[in-house]
From TrEMBL:
Protein name as annotated: ABC transporter ATP-binding protein
UniProt keywords, alphabetically: Antibiotic resistance, ATP-binding, Nucleotide-binding, Transport
Main localisation: membrane
GO BP annotation list: response to antibiotic
SUPFAM superfamilies given in the database record: P-loop containing nucleoside triphosphate hydrolases
Compartment list: Cell membrane
PANTHER family, per database record: ABC TRANSPORTER ATP-BINDING PROTEIN
The organism of origin for this protein: Virgisporangium ochraceum
Short name of any one Pfam family annotated for the protein: ABC_tran
Superkingdom field: Bacteria
Membrane topology term: Peripheral membrane protein
InterPro entries: AAA+_ATPase, ABC_transporter-like_ATP-bd, ABC_transporter-like_CS, ABC_transporter_ATP-binding, P-loop_NTPase
């Protein structure tokens, strides 16, 4: 059986009146690349702060590799890049890496780390003189310096241009290919689709969907059938919602094949038929709305 490297058991976290996490349970097996998705305030950062021992749960418990994340022995297992990172501005990039590496008995060689994250050319630059994106890349790279078993990356590519984002993705993928576990939060759905093999959608402190990308999309059964007609369109079974712009109809359906068969059988004279699955963004929005209505 695969080892569970991070576990949240019935975890709640309150800040005064605000319930940031609401009885959330989550098991993360070794080697998984998990994307945490959710709108602002869903509780993603709070969950990470509990996993890395920066905050304590109000109720429930978290474990990292079977231990308490507050313990020094447990902390050696993971690396983290928080949403905001402060790097000592007068240190050179290479000195920052050495400083972080000094905390570990078997760190990644500096050159290898810099190479993996596209930072080699910046090694001698002071961090205070780096662009925001360059600082971000360094902050993410530092999470990997101690050869952790798992890393928590809170919005790792915020503020990065396309090239820098791809370089970072490669670094993350390499770590994952070598068996590392990754938990990342992102507002870039493209990033989650690109990297993650499992997606947990959070909303109001709860996990409202959990599965691979296909499952998360499937969870909302969101397919769209679109066509043009001047005929009246009857209410057909399986239509979840219908939007109309001029003569073009876009119908959200659970079973597109069945819907099109029924449409043909109804005698509606249509042209320009299109059927497509939902993007993760659409799935996410639908899940969020449905979660909010529960
Ligand atoms: N230190 C704090 N004091 C008071 N409320 C807090 C604190 N930290 C988080 N919260 C609240 O807890 C809820 C969850 O916040 P959290 O930062 O975990 O969300 P998030 O999903 O990471 O959002 P974002 O995508 O904006 O980073 C929010 O309502 C937030 O205002």
């Amino acid at each position: 059986m695969t080892e569970i490297v991070a576990r949240a058991v019935d975890v709640s976290r309150r800040f005064g009146e605000v319930t940031a996490l609401d009885s959330l349970s989550l098991d993360i097996p070794a080697g998984q690349l998990l994307g945490l998705l959710g709108p602002n305030g869903a509780g993603k950062t709070t969950l990470i702060s509990l996993f890395v021992g920066l905050r304590r749960p109000s109720a429930g418990r978290v474990e990292i590799c079977g231990g308490d994340p507050v313990d020094a022995a447990t902390r050696r297992h993971f690396g983290v890049t928080p949403q905001q990172t402060g790097l000592p501005p007068t240190l050179r990039v290479s000195e920052c890496v050495d400083l972080a590496a000094a905390h570990f008995s078997d760190p990644l060689p500096r050159g290898e780390l810099l190479e993996r994250f596209g930072l080699t050319d910046l090694a001698r630059r002071q961090t205070g003189g780096l662009s925001g994106g360059q600082q971000r890349r360094l902050a993410v790279a530092l999470a990997f310096v101690g050869r952790p078993r798992l890393v928590f990356l809170d919005e790792p590519t915020t503020g990065l241009d396309v090239d820098a984002r791809h370089t970072l993705w490669e670094g993350i993928r390499l770590f994952h290919r070598d068996g590392g576990t990754v938990v990342l939060t992102s507002h870039y759905l493209e990033e989650v689709e690109e990297l993650a093999e499992r997606v947990v959608v959070m909303f109001r402190g709860r996990a409202i969907a959990d599965g691979d990308l296909a499952e998360v999309r499937g969870a909302v059964n969101a397919n769209h059938v679109s066509f043009v007609t001047t005929d009246p369109v009857p209410d057909l079974p399986g239509a979840i919602s219908t939007a109309r712009t001029g003569d073009r109809y876009v119908v959200r359906v659970s079973d597109p094949n069945g819907y099109v068969r029924d449409l043909v059988a109804s005698g509606v004279d249509f042209t320009d038929l299109e059927v497509r699955g939902s993007s993760l963004e659409e799935a996410f929005l639908a899940l969020t709305t449905e979660g909010g209505n529960r």
